[in-house]
Amino acid sequence: MDVTSDSPWASIGLDWFEGQLLEHLVGSPPADVVSVAQAAGVSTQEAERTLQRLEEASLVIRIAGRPARWTVSPPRSSLGGLLARRRTELARTEELAERLYAAYEAVSAPRTAHLVEVLQKGEETAARYAQLLRSSNAEVLHLAKPPYVTADRASSPAPEVAAGVRLRSVYETEGFTDAVSLETASRGTADGGELRLASHLPTKLVVFDRTSALLPVRPDRPTAGSLVVHSFALVAALAALFERVWDQAVPAFLGAGHDRPVPAGGAPTPRPDERTREVLRLMATGMKDDAIARALGISRRTVQKHVSDAGTALGAKTRFQIGLLAAERGWLGRRS
User: Fold this and answer.
1) If one looks up domain 257-336 in CATH, what number appears?
2) Is the pTM for the entire model greater than 0.90?
3) Residues 6+ apart with CB under 8 A from 151
4) Which of 30, 43, 35 is nearest to 70 (CA)?
5) Sign for the pseudo-dihedral over CA of 217, 222, 228, 231
6) Sheet arrangement for strand 116-119
7) What is the pLDDT of residues 195-241, one digit of tens each?
8) Is 3.40.50.150 the CATH classification of the domain at 10-75?
9) What is the CATH number of domain 116-251?
C-alpha cells in the first residue's frame, strides 16, 4: 500500500487510490466490481483488490448476489472506528517513545553530566554562579546584556571575586542604564576589574578560569534556566568568543579616576582631561547623555559641557564629528 503524506487519507492508512475509490462509492449507488473498475479507469483485478482492502478496514460492504455489489459503510461510524483505532495505536507508540527516552536518559545522563549541567530554577543558577565565582582563582570573563535577573539582595548578598582574580566584563550599551547593571559594574571595577562596552553582545556568558562556563538556555528568557558547561572544547570556544568581543569593545571607566595613559603612538598633545575622555568613550558606544551621566555619577549638564568642550577643541560641529576626530587623535585609546 503506497501511503503518501500528500493524500488526505494518509493519516488513516489509506493510499490515494483507495481514498478516491471510497469517495466515488459514497456518491454512487451499489455497483458491481466491473462498474467500479470502469468508473475508476482501472482493471477489474485492481478494483477487486482495492475493494477487498477497504472491506478489511470496514469501510465498504459487499452485498451478496450475482454479481456481488459494493457500497460504503456509513462514513461517520466506519471512519470514526478507524480513527479510534489509529488514536489507540498512536497512544501506544507515544508510551513506547516515553519508555525508550527514559531508558536513553538513564544511560546517557550519567555519561554527559560531567560535560553540561542543566539548572532549571533561578535560585539554582544564582547559587551555582556564586559557588563558581568563589572557587575561581585566576580570571573571570563576563558578557552582560539585558534582560537581567533581579534577586533579593537581603537574602542573597552579591558574590565577590576573590583577591588576585582578574575580572573582565563587557556590557551591552543598550542595557547599561539600569541600577542593577550599573551597581554590578561599579562593584567590579572598584575591585580592580576591567570594563568595556559594546553595542551588541551575542549572548550572556560567564567563564570561570577557562574551565567552566555559565550561560542561559534562552538568552531572551533568564527564567528558562541555565547551562553550566564543563567540556574543555566548549569552554575554550566560549572563551575565544569572549576575547573576540573584548577586542572590539570600548573601554569604560566608572566614577572619578586619575589620568590614564594611552597606547604608544596614540593621542597627540594637548589632549583633554580624563573625565572628558571617559565621556567621549561612552558616547562612542552609542550611549545617550542621561545614561552617560548615570554611569559616571555626574549630571547630564556636565556631560553636555564635556562634549561641547571637546567639540571646541577639535573644531567639530556635530557629535558624529566629535567622535570621529576624537578617535583619530587617540583620545579614545585603551589603557595600556
Assistant:
1) 1.10.10.10
2) no
3) 122, 126
4) 30
5) positive
6) 116-119, 226-229, 212-216, 205-208, 139-144, 166-172, 194-198, 250-251
7) 888 888 899 999 999 999 999 988 777 777 889 999 899 999 999 99
8) no
9) 3.30.870.10
